[in-house]
Structures are given as C-alpha cells and as structure tokens.
C-alpha cells in the first residue's frame, strides 16, 4: 500500500480482499441455490442488498417463510454497524460533492472500510473518492461474480469451506487489525491495544445476551466510549 | 422468483442503502461536533476487533458463547504471518492455507 489515491491504486489495494469475497460470495451462492433460490434471485440479493451476513439471514428467513417486516428489521439491525463506518469515512470526503459522497456510501463494506482506514495511515489521513470508488467497485464486482458462480455451479465444485476459502475474510480482518494498530500514528499503540482488549472482552460478555452481529455494534460503541475516556484520562 | 422474494430484496436493499448513505449526507450538510469526531476516531480498531472476535465465538442463545476452534487455530499462523510480512495479500493466503490444513487434519 502506498500514498497514491488514484483509481489504479484503488484496484491494486483491493486485491487482497478478493479472496474473501470469492469465498463468502460463492458460499452465499451455494446456500441460495440449495435453498431453492434462482441464480437471478441470488444475484439480485448480492447487487441490491450487498451485505454478507445479512444476505445469509435473509435467505434463511425467506426459506422459513418469515414475514417481510421481520426480515427487513433483522437486516437493519445486522447492518446498523455500517452507519458507524459511513460516519467515520464521511468527514474524509466532506470536500467532494454530494454525488461522490452518495456513491462512496452506497458501496461501502466492512472490508473496503477497513482498507480505507489502513490507507489513511499511508496518505497522511487524506482520502479521495477515486481510490475509494475503485476499491468499492472492485469488491462489488467480485462479490456479484462469486455469487453467480456459487449459485450456478455450486453443486458441481467442492465446497469452498474445504479449501479454507471461507477463512479468507477472517484472515483479512486479522491483517487489517494488526496493520491498523502498528501503522496508525494518531494514537499511542498502548491505547489502541487497550481498546482492542476491552472490545474483545465486551464481545464475549455481549454474546451471552445477543447474537454476534448486534454484539459487534454494541462492543464497538462501548470500545469507542472507552477510548474517549482513556484519552481524556491520559491528558 | 416470487413477488415476495423480490419485494423483500428491494426493501432489505433500501434499508441497507439508507444506513450506508444517510451518514454521508448528514456529514456533508452539518459539521460534526468535536466529541463525535473523537468518538469516531476509535471506530477502526474497535470494529475490526469486534468483527474478528465475533468470528472466534459461536452464539448460543441463553448460554455463554462457544469457541470456534477451527477459526481460533487458523488465526495463530495468520497472526504470525501478519507480524512477519505486514503484507495483506500474504496474510490472507497464509490464512486460507492454515484453514485448509486445520480441516485436512480434522481439527475443525
């Protein structure tokens, strides 16, 4: 990763996330297929909803004949954390016009968000929509293609889980978390590690009472409040 | 594809899109207060940790979460790869191979 914020570098920087999108996207296609959804339905879900874990939940809820309202509310809860990510990225594009902002927000994912945060450590905290659009479009296309592939040939090829491809996305988050902590100079490393440990403990406690997706949101909010408290205490 | 499936996809897509886009519109229109900027500066580390730890746990309603042994085991060499290489592509490749090996050995 370098300091360039061009389309070209956006496509290059998004490359490592491709494996994660292929693994999870194909898994989604396969599950949609085995749950008797057409290839078109699976593709539309990936194009219109475009949110990994929410799509799995939608497929299983539709298969279980849940009411539309319940499915939409579940989707909103699962994706609520995206609001936090959008709000974190938005100030960086404040100087660009509304169209660029809306486009950037439309395709933002966990992965491209995390990538963006890492990129900032190389660019002196600057961002340009060209780079983000390239990363977003790269991710979006691979996600859609992997979904179609999974839905079409799902039963003929080996389960991507066996190949370990489903772990690609976890590996990517491990990498991005580690790189974030070692390269972010805006905060002392000790404090960043402290926040990570605090959030990890929160996750275990929260998941006693709520599913993982909600725990992510709750633990992130608590982690940020904890960070604010520690920063104030240190000063 | 039935009408219900189509409507569900449209509505789920709409609500997801709003969650993603509304913050951009608001931030563009209004200046964020200092405390919120302070709060948001911790989002990257907090959310990445939360997403990672979630993948190590298994939600069991009414009980403490279980541990996803496969992901936990595969995470160890992946972390080592991160420390040594600091290269995202390599980290992902090591992770995928680690998980394949963990499954091959029947550990998960």
UniProtKB/TrEMBL annotation, chain A:
InterPro entries: Brnchd-chn_aa_trnsp_permease. GO terms for biological process: L-valine transmembrane transport. It holds the Pfam family AzlC. Keywords: Cell membrane, Membrane, Transmembrane, Transmembrane helix, Transport. It is found in: Cell membrane. GO terms for cellular component: plasma membrane. It is a multi-pass membrane protein. The chain crosses the membrane at residues 21-50, 56-78, 137-157, 163-181, 193-210, 216-233. PANTHER family: INNER MEMBRANE PROTEIN YGAZ (PTHR34979). Belongs to the AzlC family. This is LIV-E family branched chain amino acid exporter.
């Amino acid at each position: 990763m370098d300091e360039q914020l061009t389309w070209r570098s956006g496509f290059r920087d998004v490359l490592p996330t491709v494996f994660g999108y292929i693994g999870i996207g194909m898994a989604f296609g396969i599950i949609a297929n085995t749950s008797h959804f057409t290839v078109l339905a699976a593709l539309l879900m990936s194009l219109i909803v475009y949110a990994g874990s929410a799509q799995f939940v939608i497929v299983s809820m539709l298969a279980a004949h849940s009411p539309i309202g319940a499915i939409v509310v579940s989707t909103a809860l699962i994706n609520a954390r995206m609001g936090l990510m959008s709000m974190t990225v938005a100030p960086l594009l404040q100087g660009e016009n509304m169209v660029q902002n809306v486009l950037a927000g439309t395709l933002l994912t966990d992965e491209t968000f995390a990538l963006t945060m890492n990129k900032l450590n190389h660019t002196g905290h600057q961002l340009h929509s060209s780079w983000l659009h390239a990363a977003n479009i790269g991710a979006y296309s691979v996600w859609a293609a992997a979904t179609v592939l999974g839905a079409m040939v799902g039963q003929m090829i080996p389960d991507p889980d066996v190949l370990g491809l489903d772990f690609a996305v976890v590996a990517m988050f491990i990498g991005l978390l580690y790189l974030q902590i070692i390269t972010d100079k805006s905060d002392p490393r000790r404090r960043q590690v402290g926040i990570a440990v605090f959030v990890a403990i929160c996750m275990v406690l929260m998941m006693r009472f709520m599913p993982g997706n909600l725990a992510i949101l709750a633990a992130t909010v608590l982690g940020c409040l904890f960070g604010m408290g520690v920063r104030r205490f240190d000063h | 594809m039935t009408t219900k499936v189509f409507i569900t996809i449209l509505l789920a897509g709409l609500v997801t899109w709003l969650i993603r886009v509304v913050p951009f519109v608001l931030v563009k229109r209004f200046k964020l207060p200092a405390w919120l900027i302070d709060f948001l500066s911790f989002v990257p580390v907090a959310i990445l940790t939360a997403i990672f730890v979630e993948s190590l746990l298994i939600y069991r309603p009414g009980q403490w979460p279980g541990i996803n042994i496969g992901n936990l085991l595969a995470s160890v060499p992946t972390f080592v790869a991160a420390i040594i290489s600091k290269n995202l592509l390599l980290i992902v490749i090591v992770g995928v191979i680690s998980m394949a090996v963990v499954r091959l050995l029947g550990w998960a």
